[in-house]
Design goal:
EC 2.7.7.7, 16 helices, transferase, nucleotidyltransferase, alpha/beta, P-loop_NTPase, Zinc Finger, Delta Prime, domain 3, elongated, Rossmann fold, 8% strand, 328 residues, 2 domains
Length: 328
């Protein structure tokens, strides 16, 4: 369940603009929700639809308990239509079906709402059909187009929509939401430092592969501290088998960077900025091996390794070189 107060915490400007639509009784016939994945577009669209249909609405706030609200939650409201990609794209036939549905009188009222998820994935034919739909708006119809990349959509579609820009979530807000979703504080800290995408963070939290990334980074640091001569052995027998793809390698290096940032945070007594909060003692021990300057040097070398991975340099060579550089 989402309320406007919750949505204002995530997306203050977009939420306020939609709330104002009810205060001024000026609901647009079409909106374009534009923002990266995980920024709350679908939740906002569902809440806006509830506010449109709820008979017990107070201001912009739907009651959440009536038949209308509950059917929207369950995906069974007859006058709310969701359109999502069929495979890799939204096809012309899906828009034609939507148009056919809208020729019928609303089953509950004359109101109808449709939400197009990943609207940038419409085929050219589907986009042209939707454009014709938008060119002849009904006062009783509201469209919400959700996209991560509005620039790839037809300018003629964009111009007929009220644009709402969804901003990336800040790390503190992502961390708070993750904890509310049942993620441990230590994992929430790490995930919020890696991504501002709430959906991606929750997926990573459930991924056993990612859980082992944290362990491998800590093990690598321990090897570099206590058994530096075994560093290359660890990379080839423990690290590389886990990071089989370049995207996985990048993720591992991101976590390694956060470790050395924590070493610098330890020097600066910035406990509130620490990511590895359950390994604080280990971070302090690492600070005895790596000075603040050498930790900063390590960060630059990790960034250099990330660039080489992107440039298709062989990952084994990149990691072996990085390991030798981190030992110095």
């Amino acid at each position: 369940m989402q309320t406007w107060n919750e949505m204002k915490e995530l997306q203050p400007l977009a939420a306020q603009m939609l709330m104002n639509s009810f205060k001024k009784n000026r609901i647009s016939h079409a909106y374009l929700f534009q923002g990266s994945r995980g920024t709350g577009k679908k939740d906002m669209a569902a809440l806006f639809a509830k506010a449109i249909f709820c008979p017990n609405r107070e201001g912009a706030e739907p009651c959440q308990n009536c038949r209308e609200c509950k059917r929207i939650d369950s995906g069974n409201h007859p006058d709310l239509h969701w359109v999502e990609p069929d495979g890799q794209s939204i096809k012309k036939e899906q828009i034609l079906h939507l148009q056919k549905e809208f020729t019928y009188t609303g089953l509950e009222s004359n109101r109808k709402v449709y939400i197009v998820v990943d609207a940038d994935k419409m085929t050219t034919n589907a986009s042209n059909r939707l454009l014709k739909f938008l060119e002849e708006p009904s006062k009783q119809t509201t469209a919400m187009l959700l996209t991560e990349s509005g620039q790839t959509m037809l300018d003629t579609i964009r111009s007929r929509c009220q644009l709402l820009a969804f901003q990336p979530l800040n790390p503190a807000r992502v961390e708070k939401r993750l904890v509310e979703e049942g993620v441990s504080q230590s994992n929430a800290k790490l995930l919020a430092a890696l991504t501002n995408n709430l959906s991606e963070a929750l997926e990573m939290n459930e991924d056993e592969w990612f859980a082992n990334v944290r362990k491998l980074v800590i093990q690598l640091i321990e090897v570099l501290q206590n058994k530096p001569n075994e560093g290359l052995l660890f990379i080839n027998h423990q690290w590389m088998p886990h990071f089989k793809e370049r995207t996985q390698m990048q993720r591992g290096l991101d976590v390694l960077m956060l470790w050395f940032q924590d070493v610098i945070n330890d020097y600066l007594d910035r406990d509130d900025a620490m990511v590895f909060i359950t390994e604080k003692e280990r971070v302090s021990q690492a600070a005895m091996k790596w000075s603040r300057q050498s930790a900063a040097h390590c960060l630059s070398k990790i960034l250099e390794a990330k660039r080489k991975i992107n440039q298709n340099v062989h990952p084994n060579l990149v990691m072996e070189q990085l390991t030798l550089q981190l030992q110095r």
